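Supplementary notes for students who missed Thursday's class. We covered one full example, reproduced here. Read the sequence, then the structure, then the short commentary at the end.
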Amino acid sequence: MSHMNKLPSPEQAARLERQRLAAEEGTKALQEVAERAIAVRENMARLRALRLAKDEAVRTTIPNGNQPARAKSKSASDR
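Structure (token representation):
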């Protein structure tokens, strides 16, 4: 009698199914984390572009000698 043809016990089958589901859920979770990270980076790039465009518009509309002092930027710990 060969061990290759032996069917798994119900306990073994249940354990294998739990392991398969856990692996599937883990893969799905990692994909979701990667997608959220991409979305965050895209949003940061969009906001940076808006800020730079606004800064450029302000810089080009105010004569060089009369530029108001820039507001102090927040430090990294204040954000």
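Commentary. The mean pLDDT is 85. Residues 14 and 20 are 10 Å apart (CA to CA). If anything here is unclear, bring it to office hours.
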